[in-house]
UniProtKB/TrEMBL annotation:
PANTHER family: GTP CYCLOHYDROLASE II-RELATED, GTP CYCLOHYDROLASE-2. Keywords: Riboflavin biosynthesis. It comes from Linnemannia gamsii. One of its GO terms (biological process) is riboflavin biosynthetic process. This is GTP cyclohydrolase II.
């Protein structure tokens, strides 16, 4: 990856910053007759695409907070201090994950608060 973030790496490959589309998900939701949904996401583009040209309305966005970030916010970070990159109770903590998520927030409009100690 040569050290480039997700957005820059995609752009350097002449791809869009995020080329994911949600037409299939939208079609499945419509086929199931779901007009209103709660959507587990931090991605505003996902909400916009699911609602675009459809009868589906996202009535609630359920935010996703990484457990390691949640621990920082709650002041319980010491409970999650493990070897970097290690998986313990399905909690992954590491600089690469933090960097990746910060890019999502700072460059892709993701709706999640970066802990002040990391900003």
């Amino acid at each position: 990856d040569l050290g480039y973030d997700t957005v820059m790496a995609n752009l350097m490959l002449n791809h869009g910053a995020d080329e994911r589309t949600y037409e299939v998900a939208q079609a499945i939701l419509e086929d199931l007759g779901l007009g209103q949904i709660r959507l587990l996401t931090n991605n505003p583009d996902k909400i916009e695409q699911v609602e675009k040209d459809s009868q589906i309305k996202v009535i609630e966005r359920v935010p996703m907070m990484p457990k390691s970030w949640e621990a920082i916010v709650q002041g319980t970070e010491a409970d999650f201090v493990v070897r970097e990159g290690a998986v313990q109770d399905k909690i992954v903590k590491g600089k690469e994950l933090d960097k990746y998520l910060k890019v999502k927030v700072e460059r892709m409009r993701h709706m999640i608060s970066i802990p002040t100690t990391m900003a």
